[in-house]
Design brief:
By secondary structure, the chain is of the alpha+beta class. Helix content is 57%, strand content 12%. It has 21 helices and 10 strands.
């Protein structure tokens, strides 16, 4: 226990001395694990929510639709009650294709005739308010969310204003905007929302001669056989010789529901891995920047008799502890965001289940891998350093190359300082270029997605682009997270470079360089690697998009992609200006006369 307590105290002391570095590690790993957790959560998420909603609302296994209201059609639908395998039913009912207006916005709708009390099959779950009553309607929750409708609001149906008595969810229909089941006259559906109304309130729709469909809900003894249920069965086929019926199984409804998330999961999964690589790059810069301090710390521990195992535990424990804390924060953040991601239309019941065990294991492994990859190298180098050398912390004499010196001497002072900083730290410049490339890859994907034409649903303005909007929101969130993380990495790299080069910059100041030139040199050390990284990110992003592109994909113009990528240059210059300016204004004399820390 004494050794464990000692390690914890040393870790806590180091975190207190370097809170900014600890905060960066937390932000980086939290962002990566949250994105990865969301990506994993989308796998099968719709199916789970649909099954939860089915169980809570006693939904049918089969719904039979017929675009007719004749007596023979109703008789044919009623004959399905005695079909082999049917154990319960509700209906037949009618649904009318019309529009609903609320708060000045109009959306396509199907108005279903509802019983005063729901039958044994299809019992919508009220999430607020009460059930249908004469003179009042119930709106499906996804439709109500799209129109911003609440209980007590008035909506206009076929020119008649009616109050909303309740908001409900159902699994008998696909999520908004695919509630109609089939379109008017049996054709394809243009989309729309679902409204339940009393029979007397739908009589006005008959006078308007609006399209109408008859349907019946059926419960089967074996729900798995729903897709095999067909009116061509010899036992019931004679009743449908002169009636057209479209049978829709519950599996078809579940598949339609998953369309909303079909393109979101790969965006989140790929984005989480890109963010993880971005985190590794930023934390590697941080670890290298702290290498000198860690080496001296190792020398002090060796001098007081600490064993190599204890020293390694002290150096790695900080990263591991912060990684585990960041993993927990990422999982908690993902749990808060998950309902909005997995249930974008709000048409299904969202249960608070939390991350699965597999998700926790995966994100923990990723968090520890990120921390380990960034801390292992500096830790090994520090342990291999002799005690006297670690305590002395002498300056490393750079290797001079005469031909490079002659070429660089022709450059302006600012570029000269920047290029020499890059030449002394080529690995850091490469990491910064990779960071920029990964960010531009995501920005390229965002531009490509926004370049696609809108896939609207005619006749339902409120449903237009709903699936595309979900995809846009996800890629925008991933891009924003990567930009924030790249900005943090840029600030860290600039400050780390300035700290390591403070004596070099002080010498340059002593030889006549102005604070402005030093500031520009420190900024140039980050801006110059940004250019090749940004240019490399465009083809890499297009290559990534090609993996998921369809035959009709619309590609944005090259000049637009180039302009989007090159915005990284002024953004990087702006981000580096403040830390570079602070470092450049340090007094020269104290810097040159100070002993190594």
């Amino acid at each position: 226990m004494g050794r464990v307590l000692l390690v914890l105290r040393l870790v806590a002391a180091d975190v207190r001395r370097h809170p900014a570095q600890a905060a960066m590690l937390l932000v980086s790993i939290t962002t990566a694990t949250a994105m990865l957790s969301l990506g994993v959560a989308l796998h099968g998420a719709t199916e789970k929510l649909y099954q939860n909603t089915r169980e809570a609302t006693a939904e049918p296994d089969v719904v039979a639709y017929s675009p007719d209201t004749r007596g023979t059609t109703i008789t044919a639908l009623q004959s399905l009650r005695q079909a082999p395998g049917v154990v319960a039913h509700s209906g037949p009912y009618r649904q009318y294709y019309t529009t609903l207006t609320a708060h000045g916005a109009t959306g396509a709708a199907v108005v279903q005739v509802a019983d005063p009390a729901p039958g044994p099959v299809d019992r919508p779950l009220l999430t607020s308010g009460g059930w249908v009553r004469p003179g009042g309607v119930v709106v499906e929750r996804g439709f109500a969310t799209a129109l911003d409708v609440r209980v007590g609001d008035h909506v206009t149906v076929a020119g008649r204003s009616l109050p909303v008595t309740g908001i409900a969810v159902t699994a008998a229909r696909a999520v908004y905007p695919w509630a109609p089941g089939i379109g008017p006259h049996g054709g394809p559906s243009d989309g729309g929302g679902l409204v339940w109304a009393a029979e007397q309130d739908t009589r006005v729709l008959k006078s308007f001669d609006v399209p109408v469909t008859s349907f019946i809900n059926l419960k089967l003894r074996d729900p798995a056989t729903a897709r095999a249920f067909t009116t061509r069965d010899p036992a019931i086929a004679p009743a449908f010789e002169h009636t057209w019926v479209n049978v829709r199984a519950w599996q078809d409804v579940a598949r339609q529901d998953s369309v909303m998330l079909r393109d979101s999961q790969p965006i989140l999964v790929i984005g989480s891995w890109l963010i993880a690589f971005l985190a590794i790059g930023g934390l590697a810069t941080l670890a290298v920047g702290r290498a000198a301090a860690q080496t001296r710390r190792v020398g002090l521990l060796k001098a007081v008799g600490a064993a190599p195992g204890l020293i390694a535990a002290v150096l790695l424990a900080e990263y591991v502890t912060l990684a585990l804390l960041a993993d927990a924060l990422g999982l908690a953040a993902a749990r808060l965001i998950e309902p909005a991601i997995v249930n974008p239309s709000a048409s299904l019941i969202t249960t608070a289940t939390g991350p699965s065990g597999g998700t926790v294991v995966l994100t923990t492994v990723v968090a520890l891998a990120v921390a380990g990859l960034t801390a292992l190298g500096p830790t090994v180098r520090a342990l291999r350093t002799e005690t006297v050398a670690a305590l002395a912390d002498g300056a490393h004499r750079p290797r001079h190359r005469a031909h490079l010196t002659r070429i660089s001497a022709l450059l302006p002072t600012s570029f000269l300082l920047g290029i020499r900083l890059i030449a002394r730290r080529p690995g850091r410049a490469f990491l910064h270029a990779c960071t920029t490339a990964l960010t531009v890859v995501t920005i390229t994907g965002l531009v490509v997605i926004y370049a696609q034409p809108a896939k609207g649903y005619p006749g339902s303005p409120m449903a237009n682009d709903l699936r595309d909007a979900q995809q846009h929101h996800v890629i925008l969130a991933v891009t924003a997270a990567m930009i924030v993380l790249a900005a943090v990495n840029t600030l860290t790299a600039t400050w780390t470079t300035a700290e390591e080069a403070r004596r070099t910059m002080a010498v340059a100041r002593a030889l006549g360089a102005t604070p402005g030139q030093v500031t520009a040199g420190l900024s140039a050390a980050q801006v110059l690697p940004t250019l090749p990284g940004a240019l490399a990110g465009i083809p890499l992003g297009l290559l990534l998009c090609l993996l998921f592109a369809g035959p009709n994909t619309t590609w944005p113009p090259a000049w637009f992609l180039l302009a989007a990528a090159l915005t990284a240059l002024p953004v990087t210059a702006a981000l580096t200006a403040i830390p570079a300016r602070i470092a450049a204004r340090r007094p020269v004399a104290p810097t040159l006369s100070a002993e190594a820390p």
